[in-house]
Every structure is written in structure tokens, then in C-alpha cells.
Amino acid sequence: MRPARALIDLQALRYNYRVAKQLSADKTLAVVKADAYGHGAVACAKALVDLADGFAVACLEEALELRQAGITQPIVLLEGFFNADELALIAANDLWCVVHAQWQLAIIEQAHLARPLTVWLKMDSGMHRVGFFAHEYRAAWQRLHSSNNVASIVLMSHFARADEPDCLRTEEQYHLFQTATAGIAAPISLCNSPALVAWPQLRSDWSRPGIILYGSQPVVTSEQQFLPVMSLVSKIIAVRVLPPGEPVGYGAQFVTQRPTRVGIVALGYADGYPRHAPTGTPVAVGGCVTQLIGRVSMDMLAVDLTDLPAASVGSDVELWGRMVSVDEVAARAQTISYQLFCNVKRVVREYSSY
Ligand SMILES: *Cc1c(COP(=O)(O)O)cnc(C)c1O
């Protein structure tokens, strides 16, 4: 069997949740949207079931997968509902629902529901993606507050630049939110991972960490506090020695400068490894860090084994995980760990017990 694997360390996931919970003022939703950022939503939610105050997913389909797996905690739908038909299922499955647009208010008011909803009312405090503008927010809150279909309301917003510790924008968003919600007595939810790590003064009743649970740190701070959860691994399947001046891989993007021992790894961009990772991107082979050489292919990539004489066919390779930071690979490939995680496919997932 092809040796490409995503090893998922559920113990590390639990550790990271505990750290995130300590950073949070109060309740902490584990964000497990997009199949838990490629880590497997059901397995991750089950591993957190005795710890998590609740979970957050993008949509109803993702929430129903968790309910069907026996998850009974609160689940927030971060993108809310897409049409009126979904409301009955949302109520029946006791899901909490973001409301972010005017068109959703009338649908809620006119719905006939088995039980009233818990609504997370989203303000656009400056991200300018979804949510009610600050000047519309109180009126939206009032309409929901007076609807028989709404049991309770959480006030929420989302930061666009919380991963920039020196940027004034996050505090501007916060002050706009504070001003527009003054006097409304309701729980508040503001912080995603970068906000929790870099803006501890903005903590509120419900935090919403995602990426830090999976061990990637979105803001560079003095210490790495989170443990890697996913190790993307495979094995060396071929080794060849080339003289100087020989090209390796498509397009001859890498040419040997010295006699070079080239190792071929059974993992490529079809598994989710970024095709744009350049020569020099770190890769660990047999526990030692070496580098990617040449273009990443669909099913394979090449590494330099010249200085790793012990490495040979069958050696273990880690593309990211404990030895190679996913954030480093992402930076080399000019993307973010979120995208690398979400792109992982075809490889077999293996879960460690906890
Ligand atoms: C995805 C998401 C989060 C989690 O973001 P991270 O940066 O992964 O912590 C939080 N809140 C909302 C609204 C989101 O969509």
C-alpha cells in the first residue's frame, strides 16, 4: 500500500484545546468546519467531547454529520442558514445559527418552528464580508429579540487583521462593536485564534479558536504554545546518485551543483502538498531535516539525501508535523497553514488514541 499518511495526534488536539481554553476568558468553541481543517471533524469532535463547551462548523450539513455521530454539545453554524427550509432542521437538531444579513430576519420572523432558536447575530465591524453594519445592528437585534422564534441571542463579530499585533484595525473594530452594542445585555463572541493569541485584552464570553487547535500558530509570538496535530508522512521509494549539472524533475527547475543523492518521496500535490513549495523547503527524512529539490509532481517529490547517508529506500519522510513546521512550509509556498491542512486528500488518515 502507498505509504502516504496523515497521522493525527488526538492527544495533542486535546492539549491545544486546553491551552486555547486558558487563553479564553470563558467558554470556548472548537471550530471544526471544513472537516476539522482536514483533520476529520467527527474524530476530532469525539476526541474533544469531554472538554469542549461547543463546536463550530460552516453549515447545516457539517453540523448534521456531528449530530449523527452522537455529538450533543452546542454547535454553531458560522455561515448561518442559506434558505428557509433549513430552519426546521436547525431547530430540530438544536443547532445555533449565525444571522448575518437582512434577508434572514424576515425568514426567521415568518418561520413556524418546533422550538425557538439560539441566534448568533453578526456585526460587520470592519471585515466587510458578512454581518450587519454597526448602525443597523441594534434594529436587527430588536427584531430578533421580539420574535417568538428566537430564544436567545449572542452578539458576535469577526476580526480581519488580528494576526497583525501592531495593527490598529483590530482595536477600531472592537470599539465600533462596543459602541454599537452598549446596553444590550447578551453574551459576546469575538476572538478567533489570532485574536486569542495576540489580543488577549479582547477576550469575551465565547471564543472561537480553529487553527491553534491543530497546532499552527497564526501570529509569531515569543513561544510556540501549541503542539502539531497532523504529521503528513510518506516514505522514500527510490534513490539515485547524479553527477553535477543534472536536472531533477519537471522543467529542470533544479540542477545539481555537486554529486547529489536524490531521494524520491511517494507524496505530491495530488495529496495536498503545495506545488509551489520551492527548492529549499524543509523535509525531514529519517528524523533529519533536509530539503525539497525541484518541482513537486502530482504523486512524487524529490529531496536531497547527499548529507544523509543513512537515508535510503523505505526511510520515513515527514513533510510537515513535529520536525517540520507546517507554518514554515506554508510560508515557503506563499500560503497559510489553513490551506495546506484543508487541501490534504488521498492520503490515509491514521488516528492515535488518547
Ligand atoms: C473559521 C472561523 C473561526 C476560526 O478561525 P481561526 O483563525 O482558525 O481560529 C472563527 N470565527 C469564524 C466566524 C470563522 O469563520
How would you describe this protein?
The protein is an alpha/beta fold and 354 residues long. It is elongated, with a radius of gyration of 23 Å. Helix 6 (102-110) links the parallel strand 5 and strand 6. The chain starts with a strand and ends with a strand. The strands form 3 sheets. Strands 2, 3, 4, 5, 6, 7, 8, 9 and 10 form a 9-stranded parallel sheet that branches. Strands 11-14-17-16-15-18 form a 6-stranded antiparallel barrel. Strands 12-13 form a two-stranded antiparallel ribbon. The protein folds into 2 domains: 25-208, Alanine racemase (TIM Barrel); 230-351, Lyase, Ornithine Decarboxylase, Chain A, domain 1, CATH 2.40.37.10. The chain has helices at 10-23, 33-38, 41-47, 60-68, 86-92, 102-110, 134-145, 169-181, 193-198, 326-332, 337-343, and strands at residues 5-9, 27-31, 54-57, 75-77, 96-99, 117-124, 132-133, 150-157, 188-189, 206-207, 230-242, 247-248, 254-255, 260-265, 282-285, 288-293, 301-304, 316-320, 348-352. Pyridoxal-5'-phosphate binds at residues 31, 33, 78, 158, 192-194, 208-211, 218. The site of pyridoxal-5'-phosphate has 12 residues, from helix 9.
Notable features of this structure?
354 residues; alpha/beta; TIM Barrel; Lyase, Ornithine Decarboxylase, Chain A, domain 1; nine-stranded parallel sheet; six-stranded antiparallel β-barrel; 19 strands; 25% strand; elongated; binds pyridoxal-5'-phosphate
